[in-house]
Amino acid sequence: YSNGSDSNPHRLFFSTVVENSSHLGAGIKSQGTVYFKNSILAHNSRKGGGFDDCRINNAGTPAKSYGYNVFTTDAYLSNQCERSATDITGNNAGLQTLEDNGGPTWTVALEFDSPAMNAGICEAFSGIGFETLPIPLTDQRGSPRPSGLTCDIGAYEEYEPPSDFYVFLPMVKR
Asked: Could you give the CA distance from residue 92 to residue 10 in angstroms, rounded to a whole number?
């Protein structure tokens, strides 16, 4: 829930908001300004039925995407949440369940075929009216970001071994 304003917006940056449920709005519910980038909003549901990843309760500024987000439904995108051309919608987000993946808090890991993997952009979050947020050097667990070609979308960075990674096994002769 957010009461951000145009002069003091709330920002989601490399965040994962999944499997929440509420009567009023499950993913993002705002009466103010919200910006999001490199984030996952998926499988959030409204009690009584339907998906509700983003709901704005004012006639002012809708939530605005700065790109590279993953959403599981197009339903909320009407006039409440502006979408960017780089957002991925209508897909299975390719997420595992909330569990202990190492680090100080539990996280939602990416499946091997998640559209969020290597789909983010490793650049600072800047916009009109707020200070620039630098690229986080680690994910929520403290693992280095990026680990692949580019940043993964969301709070979790999937580890990818280098392409020239080899395992040498001992030779056994009988």
From this structure: 26
pLDDT at residue 81 in the model: 73
Beta-bridged to residue 81, according to DSSP, are 63
Split at pLDDT 50, 70, 90, the class of 78 is very low
In degrees, rounded to 5, the angle at the alpha carbon of residue 161 between the alpha carbons of residues 159 and 167 is 135
Q: Which two structure tokens, joined as six digits, stand for 134?
A: 């630098």
Contact call for residues 87 and 72 (beta carbons, < 8 A): no
Q: How far apart are CA 13 and CA 27, in angstroms?
A: 14
Sequence-separated contacts (24+) of 77-81 with Cβ below 8 Å = 80/54, 80/55, 80/56, 81/28, 81/53, 81/54, 81/56
